[in-house]
Amino acid sequence: MSPAEQEDAIERRRRLSDPAVILGVLVLVVGALGIFGLIAAQGDAAEALRQTQELQLRADARTFEALLAQQYGRLEFLLDQLTGAAVATASDPMARRWARLDLEGTLLRYLDTNPPVVRLRVSANDAARALAERDEGVPVLRDPSSRLPLELELLHGEWANEEGVRLEAWVDPRRVLADLGDGLGLTATRPEPGGGSTAPVAGAGELVEPVTSSFWTRPLEAVVVQQPGGVGSPLDSVTGWFRVFLWLQLVLLPAALVLALLTARRLRRIARLETEGRQARRLAALERQVEHSERLASLGRFAAGIAHEMNNPLEGMKNYTRLLSEDLAGERLEDLEQPRIWLQRIDEGIERAAGAVRQLLDFAQPSAAGGRFASLELAALLEETRRFVSAHPDCSGAVVEIECDPGLTVFGDRQTLGQLVLNLTLNACQAQVDGGAPKRVRFVAAPADRDGRVRLEVLDWGTGFTEDGLQHAFEPFHSSRGSRGLGLSVCHSIVRAHGGMIELTNRADGGGARVEVVLPSRAGSQEPGSPSHDRRQPLGYRVDESKQ
Questions:
Q1: How far apart are the first and last CA of the chain?
Q2: How far, in Å, CA of 238 to CA of 413, rounded?
Q3: What is the distance between the alpha carbons of residues 29 and 239, in angstroms, rounded to a whole number?
Q4: What domain range includes position 538?
């Protein structure tokens, strides 16, 4: 290498090692990394904001379902207030006029205080008596016999009482949704040819959450849509400042550029901390809102369960009072033995209803429940249930067979175990079709393989459980017959409270369902880990899926 070439190489190395060049390259690299980090942070903030919006939409959807259930309950309560609908057919013109005015006033007041309700119609004895609806938002009266338009976007419900009064209501779910906030829309799902439904595809920036409400004549299956909004972030202002600082790096002294870089990084860190703090507070508030909605839903299910438990004995007492009234109306009093039997069974129904109330008190004060556990004769308990269901409409003409050793006993609360056997009997009768062969229910009780326990089998001759029914039989509100779906759920709770086990299968011959209940026969023989044995450990249930 010549001396000139050596000097050129030294000069190039000197230029590359110049502090100004090194500082300039370092500033550019740091600036590029800062911009990349800022873009990544902005994307993280946008994702966090989207998650927050999804949680908010989920909470709004659950609140929307709770509001629809609340509106349905209000309309059920309204039916009890329509006392004038049946009187509107009276022969006295003055009484008929006052009854009609009272009925119309009740409908108008209800529409005025419930904006989501679009139309109300009351019928009595299969004839329309009153019709009230909204005209540009104002409640007005219409001709009850006028033809109503078909409005598929409205929810329709029907209620009827024993007096022949029928209430119909049309509710606009979009008005219910509008009360939850702006930017929310409701879109119905589309039914598929093979069954099921398909939700609409969300557009760019839109969020969707499915909602259902099965109380209505045509159950609601739709999605709540959150329209896209501005996804702002406190990092936007920091990005603008950082760009200014980047341009200053090209013209200012290295010290000023380094100071600007440090300042930008500090601002970015502060903005990120502020964003994270706001997001954390917002997420905490949304979690509390979701928890509150779940508590409301649990309260609704609990209230429905209590109503279900009270309805069974009340239905039985109603049938006996009807029979007693027929005897009195026909002046068939020469034989007082039959009325005494009716009164005795009415008294049994009252005891069952009182027992359900005591069960509610025991739930609120669990320590008091243990005082009523005693050794009970299972055969006598089954015989009492057979007598009680003999007048029930669902068990009319049913043959209830009992195979039980008279000396076989179970250890538990008489009222709740009676409710358990009653629910299993009614479920077995309801699973069999009316009009064919007489309904048949068989109880088979015997000692279990393990010491101190009794096995009770309930067999019916219905269609048996489906695969889906076996999977979800004990879930509240799950029913394939259109009922409330609380009977087996309540049975599971009673068995669990007594430290037992319950198993659902289909009969081996394929002729119906089989329910097996294992209960303790004496104190201390509860299933280990059960609530009555150790309240700290939950007890599950068995479902045999091999027998279909």
A1: 94
A2: 69
A3: 17
A4: 365-543
The length of the chain, given as a count of residues? 548
Whole-Å CA distances, 56 to 94, 285, 429, 508, 509: 55, 10, 45, 49, 51
DSSP for 35-94, please give it.
HHHHHHHHHHHHHHHHHHHHHHHHHHHHHHHHHHHHHHHHHHHHHHH-THHHHTT-S-HH
Domain total of the chain: 1
Q: Which of 187-201, 304-318, 361-375 is predicted with the least confidence, judged by mean pLDDT?
A: 361-375
pLDDT at 38: 55
- This prediction has a pTM of 0.38
- Return the exposure string of 230-269: e unless at least 16 CB atoms fall within 10 Å of the residue's CB, then b: eeebbbeebbeebeebbeebeeeeeeebbebbeebbebbe
Q: Does residue 298 sit in helix, strand or coil?
A: helix
Distances (CA, A) of 409 to 315, 392, 498, 523, 531: 29, 27, 14, 11, 21
Encode pLDDT of 53-82 as tens digits.
Answer: 888 888 888 898 899 899 889 888 888 877
Does residue 290 sit within a domain?
no
Confidence check: pLDDT of 536 > 50: no
Query: Within a domain: residue 499?
Result: yes
What's the CA gap between 486 and 469, in Å, rounded? 13
Q: State both tokens at 342.
A: 């009716």
What are 275-325's pLDDT values in tens digits? 888 889 888 888 888 877 766 665 666 666 667 667 777 887 888 888 778
- Residue 329 lies inside a defined structural domain of this protein: no
> Is residue 291 in a domain?
no
Cα angle 400, 520, 392 (rounded to 5 degrees) comes to 25
pLDDT at 230 over 50: no
Can you give the CATH number for the domain in which 496 is found? Answer: 3.30.565.10
Q: Are 519 and 434 in contact (CB under 8 A)?
A: no
Tell me the mean pLDDT in the region 200-216: 76
